[in-house]
Design brief:
With 432 residues, the chain is mainly beta. 9% of the residues lie in helices and 41% in strands. Strand 5 and strand 6 (131-140) form a beta hairpin. Helix 2 crosses helix 4.
Length: 432
């Protein structure tokens, strides 16, 4: 039973693929290019103006455009006419900004320092109250100018929404060109791509550690599916699950000390818990079915997974310490790829009904499952760390692409991936 449409059957079969050494690559950041495609309209959005930062042209980065794109795609903000020359030292003409229907105004400047770094200054105003909300100076090297813009957008989100934005986080995904696979890491907006690993053998199921510094994934470089853990900064990596049979579907525990993995070492695919400190492994599920695609609840007390023990693939959960499994999804005959929201209240998954679509359901049963997409070939949903967005893979115009969506499905954005066929997205956590 191919529980994971594109890769799961391949992971289980672990056919003898030709073995070739993988290479660790460190590529310079791709040239930044602002692109955004948005569909849908959010119901409630805060109107904000973001003026061009004074002298940003001299920095080589269109910082105000990056900030605008971050705010626009959050689904929370609506950008209004931002024309005009202002910086953090200016006194805005409030009547003018109110006439443009702006509730908030962001202004700033960029200056190159003698040591080559840049001083990025900004100020956020409440237009309705004519009141300053925040002001800050960020001194950064040229390579971190995009990150500075993302951090400013996150500050705006925090000040006006009351929770952090996710623009300074990262996503991981896998691209395939001809017969070469690359594990890529980018900014949350899809820009600044770097290669973490390239291999002629498939790479699947990347999963971020809670500290945002390690990635687990499945590699076939040994001729079968093996779970690896890689330090993102150094590139150092090690095999953590290379047991007899197939080793697949890694998921981190909230404290980063354990992995839930799917192993076939005892026969059928079952879920096991792997203690990374001592490499101890404990079988969690014991069934005559295929159990796979586990993920932890945010408190670490439960594991959600997919099983066909009821005759078709559905999402179940059971205590991490062991016990009885409880079925979670009931609508539809085929539900796979569970993902828990950071607060543990929502379950995203893929259902098969006239194609494969991303679904979202509250775990307290307060509402029926909601279809977030109108496409038919979706897979691998992953929550942003603030729980307001999801990233997923789908197909568009004959290509594998990545999309983000708000939790009402009203605002969807295609993530720029340099025209590559991409899949297996994983949204990283806040960096600790």
């Amino acid at each position: 039973m191919p529980i994971r449409r594109r890769h799961f059957s391949a992971a289980l079969s672990a056919s003898l693929l030709p073995i070739a050494p993988a290479s660790l690559l460190t590529a310079p950041p791709a040239s930044a290019q602002f692109r955004v495609e948005v569909s849908g309209i959010g119901a409630t959005q805060l109107p904000i103006a973001v003026t061009r930062l004074r002298d940003e042209d001299r920095s080589g980065q269109a910082l105000s455009q990056i900030i605008r794109a971050d705010l626009d795609t959050s689904g929370v903000f609506r950008l209004v006419d931002s024309s005009g020359a202002l910086d953090e030292r200016s006194q805005p003409q409030w009547a003018d900004w109110r006439a443009r229907s702006a509730d908030a105004l962001l202004v700033g400047s960029v200056s190159r320092l003698a040591d080559g770094r840049f001083d990025v200054r900004y100020k956020l105003w409440d237009v309705l109250k004519s009141q300053e909300l925040a002001a800050q100076s960020l001194v950064v090297p040229a390579a971190d100018l995009r990150l500075a813009a993302h951090r400013i957008a996150d500050m705006v989100h925090d000040k006006l929404v009351g929770e952090p934005g996710v623009n300074a986080t990262r996503i991981a995904y896998v691209s395939r060109v001809a017969n070469r696979y690359t594990l890529r890491i980018t900014d949350a907006d899809g820009e600044g791509a770097q290669s973490a690993l390239a291999s002629p053998q498939p790479i699947i199921s990347p999963a971020w550690a809670p500290d945002g510094r390690r990635l687990a994934y499945v590699s076939f470089e040994d001729g079968k599916a093996v779970v690896m853990v890689q330090d993102v900064s150094s590139g150092e990596r090690r095999r953590v699950a290379a047991f007899k049979g197939s080793n697949s579907a890694p998921a981190w525990s909230p404290d980063g000390t354990r992995l839930a993995v799917t192993l076939t070492r005892d026969g059928l695919s079952q879920v096991y818990l792997l203690d990374l400190a001592g490499d101890a492994v404990r079988r969690l599920t014991t069934s005559s079915a295929i159990d796979t695609e586990a993920c932890f609840s945010p408190d670490g007390r439960q594991v959600y997974f997919v099983s066909d023990r009821g005759g078709g693939p559905q999402v179940y959960r059971m205590p991490t310490g062991g016990g009885s499994a409880e079925r979670v999804t009931f609508q539809g005959a085929y539900n796979i790829s569970p993902a828990l929201s950071p607060d543990g209240r929502l379950l995203a998954y893929i259902t098969r009904e006239n194609g494969f679509r991303v679904m979202l359901m509250p775990l307290d049963g307060s509402a029926p499952p909601l279809a977030l997409t109108d496409t038919a070939d979706d897979e691998s949903p992953s929550f942003a760390p603030n729980g307001r967005l999801l990233i997923y893979a789908t197909r568009s115009a004959g290509r594998d692409v990545l999309m983000t969506t708000t939790l009402d499905g009203k605002i969807r954005r295609r993530v720029p991936t340099q025209g590559l066929d991409v899949r297996e997205p994983a949204w990283g956590p806040y960096i600790r």
